[in-house]
Design a protein that fits this description.
single chain; alpha+beta; Rossmann fold; globular
């Protein structure tokens, strides 16, 4: 059918308008998901002053909308139905005083489009998460958020800019025109002070500095044993707790709970006054640690945040660099030399939960003779056949279980009764709003930053498409050979079985919120079939126990999660004779 003159005229006008949009100049580059595109007309104009930053800045701009303002919107983004709304866009070369139009086609979570927002009164806040440019040793130039002492928290990172929340009205998808000034800047964080028992160290890592093209540091909070100052001729075992970024050696308190402390309800554990319980447990640990019957060891919590997360996962990786070697061969020997550690593999033992559980097992697997025992509680997926509820080797899509006539969303989080409050797609979409190219600083992105090869731009390759959930089998194969811990144990048992004997101890609740018990079941099957030697370790499960269960059958998670040091230091000392060589000194530090 031929077009009429009016249709042709309209087509020409449409083409001209599109051309003007596509080729109009703009000094600031933006992107809404994994690719850069031109912005449509915006209702939100954002600025910052030269008092905040005088040089052009790069980063992620996050627009947040909440129903209530009891807490700022930047603290209300979460995986479940209580979340606020957020949209995100990348920004390059943004100058002070330069109005930036927020991309009204930006990807959102949980609602993906501005046009679909509900009508009503809400509170709006905008936050700018600042990036730094890294010139890595592998030749790639990448832009990432450098940790600034907060443990890679986008809503608390010093130097990030944010606006004062304002009340807005949304009517049937129509968004109000707003001029937002990022008038607030998150201040620096004070360093903790040394005490008699707790010392703080920070060293420049030569390995990491070379990889990242700038000075990079590792740190630790060191808890010294009772009598350390008096027993100057004694050398001690080293208890290494892995886990999320520790601000200090929390859980150790030389004074009773604050009598004026107002009790706070814990939503996670459904417990009133949990803050008081935490202080009481910390004080009890102080009394236990300094008492006459507790083993004398040096205990440390290490700090190794990366531009991708609050810690590195303690292994070497393509995207993050040689963190495993830096921790094992730079940080730990430095601590042992400074604080009189024994300094031998059998005398170092590792423990932790969740992220720390994976790390504890990972360093024991990756460095069989450098560590003497591991206690891994509720570990992140240690067998990628159960990458939570995804089998990355057999499943085609991470977000759906698909049949011929329907598909079902994959669950992401449950409670101890099995009630699901978030799907895997929900979790991934929230991360995509917070950062493209694996830069959200969240859980699924750090697994990719740790396990994946890098893409042509130098960022981690996706294990699955963040929008669709389609799994990349080539990336899955790389993960299997390098970071699937259960598979590596099975593959390398004939080579390292003797080095792993008596060292592997796993604990997990059978109703873990993230389904992490499924991978532990598979790993247990592999360990139970070992021979010459048998693994001679331990695998234990908590009945109806949720995430963070660590082998304590007598107390709830809210208490046992505060007792890692008391539990696992004793377990190590009770079994150290099984891993120590003949003639090892097991007496001088047992005073």
């Amino acid at each position: 059918m031929k077009n009429s003159p009016k249709v042709i005229a309209r087509s020409i006008m449409t083409w001209l308008l599109l051309s003007m949009m596509l080729f109009s100049s703009c000094s600031t580059s933006i992107s809404n998901d994994e690719s850069t595109h031109a912005s449509t007309k915006s209702a939100v104009e954002i600025t910052f002053s030269d008092q905040q930053y005088s040089e052009p800045v790069d980063g992620r701009l996050i627009l947040l909308i909440s129903e209530q303002a009891e807490t700022e919107p930047r603290f209300q983004l979460r995986d479940d139905s209580k979340t606020c709304q957020a949209f995100g866009m990348d920004v390059d070369g943004w100058n002070s005083g330069e109005p930036l139009q927020f991309d009204m086609e930006a990807f959102g979570y949980p609602i993906q489009s501005f046009a679909d927002l509900p009508s009503g009164e809400f509170y709006l806040q905008v936050l700018f998460h600042k990036y730094e440019t890294f010139y890595r040793a592998d030749g790639h130039v990448v832009k990432l958020p450098m940790d600034r002492g907060e443990g890679q928290q986008w809503n608390r990172a010093p130097g990030n800019l944010y606006s004062t929340p304002v009340q807005i009205q949304i009517n049937e998808g129509a968004f109000p025109e707003l001029a937002i000034n990022l008038d607030q800047k998150i201040p620096p964080i004070e360093e903790p002070e040394d005490t008699k028992y707790v010392k703080h160290i920070k060293i420049k890592s030569e390995l990491l500095s070379e990889f990242w093209g700038r000075d990079m540091y590792l740190g630790a909070h060191v808890l010294l044993p009772e009598g350390w100052e008096e027993h100057t001729d004694v050398k001690y075992p080293l208890a290494i707790m892995h886990g999320h970024f520790p601000k200090d050696f929390n859980g150790f308190r030389p004074s009773p709970p604050d009598p004026d402390l107002e009790p706070v309800y814990s939503e996670r554990f459904d417990v009133e006054g949990y803050n008081i319980m935490v202080q009481q447990e910390a004080y009890d640990f102080y009394k236990t640690w300094t008492g006459p019957d507790f083993p004398r060891v040096i205990a440390i919590k290490i700090q190794h945040p990366t531009p991708y997360y609050d810690d590195s996962y303690a292994v070497n990786s393509e995207a993050q660099g040689p963190y495993g070697d830096a921790i094992t061969y730079e940080l730990i020997p430095h601590i042992e030399e400074q604080f009189r550690g024994i300094g031998e593999g059998w005398s170092r033992f590792v423990y932790g939960g969740s992220t720390g559980g994976w790390e504890a097992l990972a360093v024991q697997v990756k460095y069989p003779t450098e560590y003497g025992m591991c206690f891994a509680a509720c570990p992140d997926p240690i067998d990628f056949r159960a990458y939570c509820l995804v089998n990355i080797y057999e499943d085609e899509n991470a977000y759906y279980k698909e049949g011929a006539f329907r598909k079902t969303l994959v669950a992401g989080h449950r409670d101890y009764l099995g009630d699901v409050d978030a799907t895997l797609r929900d979790m991934s979409y929230r991360e995509l709003v917070l950062g493209t190219k694996g830069r959200s600083g969240q859980q699924w992105d750090i697994w990719e930053a740790t396990y994946s090869p890098i893409d042509e731009d130098g960022y981690p390759r996706r294990i699955w498409d963040k929008r669709t959930g389609e799994i990349d089998k080539e990336v899955a194969s790389y993960w299997k050979e390098n970071y699937d811990l259960a598979y590596i144990l099975k593959r390398d048992w004939t080579k390292h079985g003797k080095d792993w004997e008596h060292k592997i101890h796993l604990y997990c609740g059978d109703m873990d919120n993230y389904y992490l018990n499924n991978a532990v079941y598979l790993a247990e099957d592999i360990l139970s079939e070992t021979s010459a030697p048998f693994y001679n370790g331990e695998v234990d499960y908590g009945d109806r126990a949720e995430h963070c269960w660590n082998g304590d059958h007598e107390n709830g998670n809210h208490i046992s999660r505060l007792r890692y040091h008391r539990m696992f230091i004793k377990k190590y000392v009770e079994n150290v004779d099984k891993v120590a060589p003949d003639g090892a000194d097991l007496k001088s530090w047992d005073y």
